[in-house]
Amino acid sequence: MIRRLTTFLAAAALAVTGTLIVARPALAAPEDYHLSWFEAAEGDVTGTYRNVIGQIEATDIGTDTLSEITNSSDLVIQPSCSDPLPPNATPLCFSAGDNSAEEWIPQGITTTNDATGGSASKILVSWYDGCSTGTQGTDWGRPNQGCQDGPNTDEAADKGVRISVYTPHVGYRNVLLVEPFFNSSDNPSFHATHMHAGGIALYGNFLYVADTRYGMRVFDTRKIFDLNEQLNPTNRPTNISDKTKVGRHSNVWYSHGYRWVWPAVGSGGATAPATPPTARASASR
Questions:
Q1: Number of structural domains, the chain?
Q2: Which in 51, 77, 99, 161 has the greatest CB count within 10 A?
Q3: What pLDDT does residue 191 have?
Q4: Quick one: CA torsion of 191, 239, 257, 228, rounded to 10 degrees?
């Protein structure tokens, strides 16, 4: 009798409310994350980079390492900056020329301690060229701030990204980051890189530079081209006086006026799905 009454009451409740009340099933456990989602996927251009660099190395263009280019310095850290320093702070201020440059904006920082775990014998700082046509119209470009009409004749040049390499008690040098490619004549060349360069890290023999649009750019600390005009023979002439050009033009190598250019040796993007699975909430909605 009790069982029939219970069944009747349950049926009546269903008829009145139209809702069947059942126990909530157990929630599925959150899917585990996989480290492979965050491994760098080698870019399709990596093979091209290697081929171009190999052909440039086969010429008489000199190749230096990161250590070799910082054994001496052409720029001196200033003893003080314009802003007051907090107590016990040691200033590392760029040269007057770099501080007054309208187009260059400092971004990321890393040290050789990141690469080797030893003492920080060198400090690297990335800069992007806010006046470059490759950055204007992006979230980091400055298209309407007089970049094309600045006091420097090279300010309108599309210089991309550079790295300042500082050695304590010596000074620092600026090195231009470039992307290798084969030009329309199928000759090896390079052009400026276009990225925000907001994050950089030395690890082992490589410098990793975050690229907002393409993941990561990789640069080998053992492959930095030296375009010193006095060191290169006439059959492979270089020109570091003309700051408006970069790459190979009529068999002459240009670098926007920088003695050293640092070519990318690889690129990579995350292999993670666009939206990794997240833990599902167990609380009632």
A1: 1
A2: 161
A3: 93
A4: 100
